[in-house]
Design a protein that fits this description.
Elements lengths: L13 H4 L9 E5 L2 E5 L5 E2 L5 E4 L2 E4 L1 E6 L5 E9 L2 E8 L11 E8 L3 E8 L5 E10 L5 H5 L10 E3 L2 E5 L4 E7 L4 E3 L4 E8 L4 E9 L19 E4 L3 H15 L1 E4 L2 E7 L11 H10 L6 H11 L17 E2 L8 E2 H19 L3 H21 L14 E2 H20 L5 H18 L1 E2 L6 E2 L2 E2 L5 E2 L27 H12 L29 E2 H14 L2 H17 L7 E3 L10 E2 L8 H13 L3 E4 L4 E4 L10 E8 L2 E7 L5 E5 L5 E2 L2
Parallel strand pairs: 32-36
Antiparallel strand pairs: 1-2, 2-4, 3-6, 4-5, 6-11, 7-8, 8-9, 9-10, 10-17, 11-16, 12-13, 13-14, 14-17, 15-16, 18-33, 19-20, 21-22, 23-26, 24-25, 26-27, 28-29, 29-30, 31-32, 33-34, 34-35
Helix pairs in contact: 3-13, 4-5, 4-6, 4-13, 5-7, 6-7, 6-8, 7-8, 8-9, 10-12, 11-12, 11-13
Length: 662
């Protein structure tokens, strides 16, 4: 969705706020609101942004291990799951002749601030090892750390089994088990003397919390996401889906005023909080895992809806988001307001209980009321107003109108016919005003200036024109493009100018201002690529959908199946690899949900839980071979589907009340 917006720090110039420290090489563990950022070697040195964080505050910035008076030799650092990582190192004590290490060191670090340091002896005789851990912290907020304004290390005090640091507003404690033989507060040092017999291992556990006792609770939210699984001819599908589900779950935060409601935070480390548009899109793409996340996110945003009379009545507030050099920033509140009725309409089809739908319906109607008043005299929606009429904004508005009408009709509310008529009018105006005719078949303008002049950039945002949404009975909603224009757009999205080989570019290569690292001017954004894959698949453009899906899966493999929110869009060549963006969030909610969206698009699941039906329209050709998806949720019950190598779909598990049809 959006690029990694810098943390806000009062008094710091905007230009400086945009200079985020690079984190693309970091090993990040997250279980919101807990976060650990480690270098690949695993030693927290007290420099840069590395550290253990909770709710945006750094509890520990330095955690340096020494064995036998020196630092172990780092061998490998890797993620084990969304919330934990392992760092492997070795030590050569000299007890044995030759160059081989004789002590193995494994550090398993958890997002909740727990670290287990295990030393294993490979020597043929007993060995006595002095072990030291140097600790320190500044208790600085993440925003200040990112802006290069971290404070000096604080002086530690001795805790019963470790060390403690405090300021007037915060404190942190690191406790050790077994307790250290010696603790030097002035040096931030814990010491042990460990005796290891041949082949023996010993473990030291460190627990860093905000309190003097107890373990920092991670995963405070009851996870509403089903534990979906994939298996098939391409084993990477299983790894991608598993990692995507884990990462999305690790980003869940609860509404502090309504702890029963959870939402997906935008991403780590820079945006570990509510971002209305991203949180809604992530919930929408995760609907195959159940409707719980969508319902909670919708409730949270409904509580923020503007109630004061005026032009913003019914709007869901949201910040501006950068749109690159060619357009001014767009308002994410506009996007979230338009997404609200669409997400509610689709969640109902996936099986959201009718009482929850009824509770949220008035907020959806207020969103539609806002849209009615926000449409300009030309019939298009400016974002922000006054400003450009963006291509994707019209797609969002049209989807809200069509799906909103379907929702109103299904719930016996007035206004459905009005919104169908408004949607039809928007389709007619869009095809006349946004389509730029050319000898190559034409293209959609990326935006119309306020005076009506088109901006003829080809951007990844055009993928939203193919994301029409789902109606009752397994029908796809009509789109802003007719069939010939949709075919032309599919050709454009599948051509090398837009398809980097690793996913969809946010701007075509030959457009003025193209930058392979530009978040809106060239970089691949995982969310937009998944939207394109699903939209192309639904519209029947098999070749283009399969090409983008294959590239995105290859990129996911290169990133350890944890896709960043964006990465550089250099053209893929033999032997090349996708290049990270140094400021991208990883994990990010929409990037994690993109893996779920892209893989479930292969099955073409189109439920209508209120009507008791589910349709399957798999992508022809089975680009990943045979594939089985299990652990999904339709109508609140387990759902499993198998796609054969011929591209034929079969439901293997479903609620008793569901009938295959549509």
């Amino acid at each position: 969705m959006s690029h990694a917006a810098p943390p806000r720090l009062p008094g710091v110039p905007a230009a400086r706020r945009s200079e985020l420290p690079p984190v693309h090489g970091a090993v990040i563990c997250v279980a919101a609101p807990c976060l650990v950022i480690s270098p690949e070697h695993g030693q927290l040195t007290g420099q840069g942004i590395d550290g253990i964080y909770r709710s945006g505050r750094r509890l520990l910035s330095r955690c340096v291990l020494r064995v036998g008076g020196r630092e172990p030799v780092a061998v490998q650092g890797r993620s084990l799951a969304a919330d934990r990582a392992v760092f492997t190192a070795t030590v050569r004590t000299g007890a044995e002749p030759g160059p081989d290490p004789d002590i193995g060191v494994e550090r398993v670090r958890h997002a909740d601030g727990t670290e287990r340091i295990t030393l294993r002896s490979f020597t043929a005789r007993p060995v006595r090892l002095p072990v030291e851990v140097l600790l320190g912290t500044d208790l600085t907020e993440l925003a200040a750390v990112a802006a290069g304004q971290a404070g000096p290390e604080l002086t530690a005090g001795v805790h019963a089994a470790g060390l403690r640091w405090s300021t007037g507003e915060a404190q942190a404690v690191t406790a050790a088990e077994p307790p250290p033989d010696d603790a030097l507060a002035s040096a931030g040092l814990l010491r042990w003397q460990l005796e290891l017999a041949p082949g023996e291992s010993r473990t030291i556990e460190l627990r860093t919390t905000q309190h003097r006792v107890g373990r920092a609770p991670a995963g405070q939210v009851a996870n509403p996401l089903a534990d979906a699984r994939a298996e098939g001819d391409d084993p990477r599908a299983e790894a991608w889906l598993r990692t995507s589900v884990q990462d999305l779950g690790a980003l869940l935060l609860r509404d502090p005023e309504h702890p029963g409601d959870a939402f997906a935070a935008a991403g780590a480390p820079w945006r570990l909080g509510l971002a209305p548009a991203e949180s809604l899109w992530a919930a929408r793409m995760a609907l195959p895992l159940g409707t719980g996340l969508a319902a909670a996110t919708l409730r949270i945003l409904a509580r923020t809806q503007t109630e004061e009379r005026g032009s913003d009545l019914g709007k869901i507030p949201g910040p501006l988001r950068g749109a690159g050099a060619q357009l001014p920033p767009g308002c994410t509140g506009t996007e979230a307001t338009l997404a609200f009725p669409a997400v509610l309409a689709e969640a109902r089809l996936w099986g959201m209980p009718e009482e929850e739908v009824a509770q949220l319906l008035p907020a959806a109607e207020r969103c539609l009321d806002w849209l009615r008043g926000a449409l300009g005299e030309d019939g298009f929606l400016a974002d922000p107003d006054p400003g450009p009429r963006r291509c994707e904004t019209q797609a969002h508005a049209h989807r809200a109108a069509v799906l909103g009408a379907d929702l109103l009709a299904a719930c016996g509310r007035p206004g459905a016919e009005e919104w169908r008529e408004r949607a039809a009018g928007l389709r007619e105006r869009f095809r006349a005003g946004f389509w730029i005719v050319g000898p190559d078949g034409g293209r959609p303008a990326s935006a119309l200036h306020p005076d009506g002049r088109p901006l003829p950039r080809l951007t990844g945002a055009a993928a939203h024109l193919l994301d029409t949404g789902l109606l009752g009975g397994g029908r796809l909603a009509p789109g802003l493009l007719d069939r010939p224009r949709a075919e032309q757009l599919a050709r454009l999205l599948g051509a090398p100018a837009m398809d980097s080989g690793w996913g969809l570019r946010s701007m075509a290569v030959k457009e003025p201002g193209h930058n392979p690292f530009g978040h809106r001017s060239g970089a691949v954004r995982a969310y937009e690529s998944a939207v394109a894959v699903a939209g192309l698949a639904q519209a029947g453009f098999q070749k283009e959908a399969a090409g983008l899906l294959g590239g995105l899966l290859d990129a996911a493999e290169a990133f350890g199946y944890r896709l960043p929110e964006m990465f550089a869009a250099g053209q893929r060549t033999a032997g090349s690899a996708p290049v990270p963006h140094p400021a991208a969030c990883r994990p990010a909610a929409v990037a994690a949900a993109a893996g779920i969206h892209a893989l479930t698009a292969l099955a073409g699941i189109r439920p209508d839980a209120p009507a008791g039906t589910v349709a399957l329209v798999p992508l022809p050709g089975a680009p990943l071979g045979a594939l089985r998806l299990s652990g999904l949720r339709v109508a609140g019950e387990p759902f499993a589907v198998r796609i054969s190598r011929l591209g034929l779909g079969m439901v293997e598990e479903a609620a008793d009340a569901l009938q295959l049809g549509g």
